[in-house]
Amino acid sequence: MSDRRPYILVLYYSRQGATRALAERIAAGITSVGGVDARLRTVPPVSPTCEAVDPEVPAEGAVYASLDDLRNASGLALGSPTRFGNMAAPLKHFIDSTSELWLNGALIDKPATAFTSTSSLHGGQETTLVSMLLPMLHHGMVYAGLPYSETALTRTQGGGTPYGVSHLAGTRSDRPVDGDESELATAQGIRLARLTLALESMRESRG
């Protein structure tokens, strides 16, 4: 086994804080499993004007992700609010910059999952999750959704899908993460952490 303690990159974009809240709960699930850490990272917004420059470190919340954060991660949780049934442009912009990792096969056989938040119940939660799944498959990652053994999937009145946890934020984005959504996010983090440790051992034994 490597002396480096494995970590899972929890990478998200959040405008109003709902996706960030899910990210923090997933991270809590990850760190509840011994032997693996969670690394919270975000991405800067995409500006329509080339003159606009964001500070290198955001004023609050997680710091911006680098390619090395992703390269050295043993697993990935990817989160975004929905934009017309798709992931948000800032997160897509970062994913589009990972060609180097794809060429080197840096993410092959690493587990990954996705999460999202929408303002309406039928606002594209599942298609947004699928949009984040696609680049993970191209990278050769092993996708982990939420199995129906998580009973909150069948009773939730807000978010929650077998493709990954989701959150119903409301039209004003002021609805807090409810109990079922929080339970599912934590369970998703736990499942991802356990798979990360198992697949980490497999990769190291394979050399």
Automatic annotation (TrEMBL):
The keyword Repeat does not apply. Pfam families: FMN_red. Keywords: Flavoprotein, FMN. GO terms for molecular function: electron transfer activity; FMN binding; NAD(P)H dehydrogenase (quinone) activity. Its cofactor is FMN. One of its GO terms (cellular component) is membrane. Residues 8-192 form the Flavodoxin-like domain. SUPFAM superfamilies: Flavoproteins. Belongs to the WrbA family. This is NAD(P)H dehydrogenase (Quinone). It comes from Halomonas cupida. The lineage of its organism: Bacteria, Pseudomonadati, Pseudomonadota, Gammaproteobacteria, Oceanospirillales.
